């Protein structure tokens, strides 16, 4: 080989070396692979994408700090993401790929009840554990021991939102509209139960729409004519929320519109604009009043990965942290044995690195809801959308 060419190649490799060592694992690196399985295309895409970007941003911070310690050894965190397209069959295929091809034992996702329900047998057979964002209680109750709830369920959120609105806004009547799937209908039923407990007049609870709907005027018109104090969009996906809000306002509805799910301010601004002002939803647990400098750093890293900040990422940062903290509590055995991981769940009890003052503590909760601790202790935040951003209304806990 000519000398000049040899020198050129050597210089090129030297220039690339820092990039390789920083972004690609050396052969000797110890690695913990974490799967991320969720909806990253279609109307609900932001739910899965925020999981992905949060996991990637958080993993990058951990890796930059030298990795994650398990029994005195450092491990690099690698996130493997798969789009389930909000389809149960695709979710099953994705879970099988993560477990059997990628060797993943821990998965973040899926995002809704239908896809979480679909992968339960795969998790049990493959010996894997998922932090899920489906809400139905049975998903986390024995014998479904290989799942944990990663955020606040609708049946936990609805009573908090409605109680605030009764006391602060004086609402007395409510109507519900739900997407016709397990997630939407389950959230609607929980909302109806919460409304009854507060003695709210339920003017309508049977309005539904199908996936892919873009014209919401026919289904919303009867609700608007009845003019309840509040219309609840049960289990609504981010892009559907904007269309529903805009349609309701164009039909002349002037009351409160709310949901128990979390949303993206940028999506609401793009689709509904000023019509979304006053929209009340679940917040992202990263409000300025409670977030630590670590969360501020995470927000910067998330923005680099995703291109913009999404308030919901303040909730999604918890999944990877809880998985890794539980592995550390169990020891290296949990890297390959999910049973060791599950046995260590009650032992995790740490100061919360994401909340000023460290409370609520970082641990698994939910025993009163599911019969055993299978819920990440994410703070409960209620937000109102206003002029392109969220304003905090309530900060509390499910306990």
From TrEMBL:
One Pfam entry name: Peripla_BP_6
Entries under SUPFAM superfamilies matching the protein: Periplasmic binding protein-like I
Keywords recorded for this protein, A-Z: Amino-acid transport, Signal, Transport
InterPro entries: BCAA_transport, Leu-bd, Leu_Ile_Val-bd, Peripla_BP_I
N-terminal signal peptide: 1-27
Record-level GO BP terms: amino acid transport
The Leucine-binding protein domain, residue ranges: 32-354
Family: Belongs to the leucine-binding protein family.
PANTHER family: LEUCINE-SPECIFIC-BINDING PROTEIN, PERIPLASMIC BINDING PROTEIN OF ABC TRANSPORTER FOR NATURAL AMINO ACIDS
Descriptive protein name: ABC transporter substrate-binding protein
